[in-house]
Each structure stands twice: as structure tokens, then as C-alpha cells.
Design brief:
Blueprint lengths: L2 H14 L4 H16 L7 H15 L8 H7 L6 E2 L11 E2 L3 H12 L1 H16 L3 H23 L2 H11 L7 H14 L1 H10 L9 H17 L4 H11 L8 H7 L4 H5 L5 H22 L3 H21 L6 H20 L25 H10 L3 H8 L3 H8 L1
Parallel strand pairs: 1-2
Helix pairs in contact: 1-3, 2-3, 4-7, 5-6, 6-7, 7-8, 15-16, 15-17, 16-19
Length: 397
């Protein structure tokens, strides 16, 4: 950051100090959401850092630091993701949605009840009585579930929740996350049982390991079909290779035809693997823009691996999944292309690491990227090489 940018950021931070804490909390939640969406907001990073530091130091009720809220949302941890609410799939809840939901409950809907919970929870948390804090959180959760489900039972109540959330965020998708939160908490016991039955870490999802997982998923689906997306998110986090989640959709189908796999019991796993590419696309953008060449190279390799697995395991031609994959890979290519003009000239001397066949499977996006480099776009390959002391130091930072 140059001197002028630093001064601008300082002026903005000084202005923020004049706003009410509640307004600053809302601003932080919104800046974090836009950041996860990939929006390039000038001077936003120092603002986010300053706001996070403030709430960390004061202990005010932002989800990241508010202990009573942390205990309240703790059961959701297996399915929380650091993605914008707009990008959270049916088995995920955006961490950024928690602050607006917490504010809605504690400031609008159940103010008196919430104030009692927060005061009592703070007392037991200060005394390091974690079991008691969790019991209090569970009791408050039940009251919130009953109240919110009651409101959602009518059109007027639903509208009041939607409107209430808009006081804390401009993201309409936060309402969807609130509904997912209610569903998850309602089936929490079943999902906890599912998670306990899984191995802590699953090296390969095949053979006996896959059979066990399919059995657990089938049992869960018979009890609560709407729990399956959450269960798949929990499963994906246990996999050393997350895209192996594909197996729960492709193996039961016993066929590569997309239509056959789409009719399998856990076909939603395919869409969730496609979501992994989208997420890595945004991570790649962040790595490129922050000059983290080693990490960027790793992400590109991971994207190619997922693409190759999808094309190998599923006959995608003419399918919606195939179209979605093509669009995702085109977006990844465009992301790399768009960064070319922003790369400093002092990276031109680095080697062409992405010309390695290991990173460019035939018929994959990697093959297309190879042609880009052959045409002389050595700046991008240099950025991603990451084999000089300078770039390693920058990446480590």
C-alpha cells in the first residue's frame, strides 16, 4: 500500500469511529460478504482488519468474537463455509450469514430473551464452565427454533424475517442460510450420529470404506432425506481428496451416463464437486492478486484434477453438468487471462512450470493454458512457477 492509499484508509477508519458500534458491525459483515464474492472494493482490507480488531478487543456481539453467539452457532460448525451466502450450496451455511442472523434474533425478534441468555452465558463462560454454556445455548436454540419456525409458517411472518435481515445485510441469500440453519438444528442429532460413524480421515473412498459410507447415507436418507446435503458436506471434509465425493453418486449408478448417474440416490454429490471447482476458482483469483505463486500453482493443479475426475467418471457430453463444467473452466481461464496485465515485469524471468504434462491432462483446461504459454504468455507461467527465494518468501508471508 502506497502512502496515499494508506492515508485514505486512515481517513476512512477515522470516519468509522464516529459511527455507532451496531452500524460498524453491519458494515463489517457486508464487507466480508462482498470480499468473499470477489468484489474489488478499494481500501477494504485495512477497513476489515480494523473492524475485526475492534470487535476482538471489545468482545461485542459480532459472531467471530462474541462468546454467547459462538456457543449458539457451534453445532453448525461441520457445515459452515467461508463463502458468500450466494455461493453456499444446499449442504453449506455461509459463516458470514451468522452475524446478520444473530443480530436479527437478539436485536429485533427476541430482545429480552436474548439479553437474558447473553448475560447468563457470559457469567458461566467467564467461570470457564463450558458444559453449562453449551446447555444454555441449547436451551436458547430451542426457543429460537420454535419462534422462527412459527414465523415462517405464515406469509406475513416470512416477510418480516426477510425484511428484518435486510437491516443487517444486502444479501438476500442470508434468508436461505437462516432456513438451512433451522433445518440443520432440527436434525442435529441424526447428523451428529452420522459424523461419529465416519472415520476421522478417509484416505480413499472405495471398497469397504465406500460401502460403509453408502450404508450410512442410505440409513440417514430413510430417516431424513433433507439431511443428505449436509451429510455430504460433512463427508467431503473427512476425505483427503474431496472430489472423491463423486463416488457416492457414480458407483451406485454403475454407469458413466450422466442421465443414469442423475437418477442415483446421491446424485447431488456431482453438483457439490462442481462447487469445489468454483470455490478453487475464487481461491486462485486471491492467490494471483496477492502474488502467492506456489499456492496458485497448487490450486491450478487441484482444479485440473477435479476436472479430469469428472470427465473420466461421467459421460458429460450434452448434460447440464457438462455445460456447467465447461463454463467453470472457461471462467478459470478468463481469471488467469485477466491477471496478465497486472503481473509485475520482475516476474518474467521465472520458469514455465505449467507446461508440465502433469498439470495439463489431455482435453482439460490445462491443455488450453499450455497453448497460452506457447504463444508467449510467459508472465503468467512465471508467476505460478514460484521457484525463486523471493517468491517463496512472499508466498510464505
Amino acid at each position: 500500500m502506497n502512502t496515499k492509499q494508506g492515508q485514505t484508509a486512515e481517513h476512512l477508519i477515522e470516519y468509522l469511529r464516529q459511527l455507532a458500534p451496531q452500524v460498524r458491525r453491519r458494515l463489517l459483515a457486508e464487507l466480508e460478504r462482498l470480499h468473499l464474492l470477489g468484489e474489488d472494493i478499494p481500501h477494504s482490507e485495512p477497513l476489515i482488519a480494523a473492524l475485526r480488531a475492534e470487535f476482538r478487543n471489545t468482545g461485542q456481539n459480532h459472531y467471530r468474537v462474541g462468546n454467547p453467539s459462538r456457543y449458539f452457532f457451534e453445532p453448525l460448525e461441520p457445515v459452515l463455509v467461508d463463502r458468500a451466502p450466494e455461493r453456499a450450496n444446499s449442504g453449506q451455511i455461509a459463516r458470514g450469514s451468522l452475524a446478520p442472523i444473530w443480530s436479527l434474533v437478539t436485536e429485533q425478534l427476541l430482545r429480552s430473551m436474548a439479553a437474558d441468555y447473553i448475560a447468563d452465558a457470559n457469567d458461566v463462560i467467564a467461570a470457564d464452565k463450558q458444559a453449562a454454556a453449551r446447555q444454555m445455548a441449547q436451551a436458547f436454540q430451542k426457543k429460537v427454533l420454535i419462534y422462527l419456525n412459527g414465523l415462517l409458517g405464515s406469509a406475513e411472518g416470512t416477510a418480516s424475517i426477510r425484511d428484518g435481515l435486510m437491516a443487517y445485510t444486502s444479501s438476500h441469500a442470508t434468508f436461505d442460510d437462516l432456513k438451512k440453519m433451522l433445518r440443520y438444528l432440527d436434525m442435529q442429532r441424526e447428523l451428529e450420529d452420522f459424523g461419529r460413524a465416519l472415520a476421522p480421515r478417509i484416505g480413499r473412498l472405495e471398497g469397504a470404506s465406500l460401502d460403509k459410507v453408502l450404508g450410512l447415507l442410505s440409513t440417514l436418507k430413510a430417516k431424513r432425506a433433507d439431511a443428505v446435503p449436509f451429510a455430504l458436506t460433512i463427508l467431503a471434509r473427512r476425505l483427503e481428496t474431496p472430489w472423491e465425493l463423486l463416488s457416492v453418486a457414480t458407483v451406485p449408478a454403475d454407469n458413466r451416463a450422466a442421465a443414469r448417474i442423475a437418477a442415483s440416490p446421491f446424485a447431488i454429490a456431482v453438483s457439490m464437486v462442481l462447487d469445489q471447482i468454483e470455490e478453487k476458482h475464487h481461491l486462485l483469483l486471491f492467490a494471483l492478486r496477492n502474488y502467492r505463486p506456489v499456492r496458485a500453482k497448487e490450486i491450478v493443479s487441484e482444479i485440473y484434477g477435479i476436472e479430469d475426475a469428472l470427465r473420466t467418471r461421467i459421460e458429460l457430453k450434452g448434460s447440464g453438468w457438462g455445460q456447467q463444467l465447461d463454463e467453470l473452466m472457461t471462467a478459470v481461464q478468463a481469471a488467469v487471462d485477466a491477471e496478465i496485465n497486472t503481473i509485475p515485469s520482475d516476474h518474467r524471468h521465472l520458469t514455465h512450470i505449467l507446461e508440465s504434462p502433469r498439470l495439463r491432462p489431455d482435453q482439460s483446461f490445462g491443455h488450453k493454458v499450455g497453448h497460452m504459454f506457447e504463444k508467449g504468455w510467459d508472465v503468467v507461467s512465471g508467476l505460478l512457477a514460484g521457484n525463486t527465494d523471493t517468491t517463496h518468501r512472499r508466498d510464505a508471508s
